[in-house]
Design a protein that fits this description.
Length: 106
């Protein structure tokens, strides 16, 4: 289909799933149409709404994965999402150099 389209043509589909399989394909196809000055319309779906729905779905899956990881952690264990502090060690507050009370502090 793309090889037969030219500047000023219009592509019209009933639903987005008749044209693309996923959000990445939708974005690529819309970019191609825009670059070639081709209009696009979906009679049933709004591409913007489709992108928002996919983003919401992705966030929901990520939230579910976090909840599962937290539930699977043993009681009293650190959260699997805990991050290391700067310096490379959890809870590290001091520099690696040691200082004794005999050494000057400045």
């Amino acid at each position: 289909m793309l090889d037969r389209l030219s500047r000023g043509d219009e592509v019209m589909v009933w639903k987005l799933d008749r044209l693309v399989r996923n959000t990445r394909n939708l974005l690529e196809r819309l970019d191609t149409f825009k670059a070639r000055d081709i209009e696009f319309r979906s009679l049933r779906d709004d591409p913007e709404a489709e992108l928002e729905r996919d983003e919401l779905s992705e966030r929901t899956r990520a939230g579910t994965a976090i909840a599962v990881a937290k539930a699977a952690a043993p009681a009293g264990a650190r959260s699997p999402l805990a991050t290391l502090r700067p310096g490379g060690h959890a809870g590290s507050r001091h520099k690696h150099s040691r200082q004794t009370s005999a050494e000057p502090s400045g």
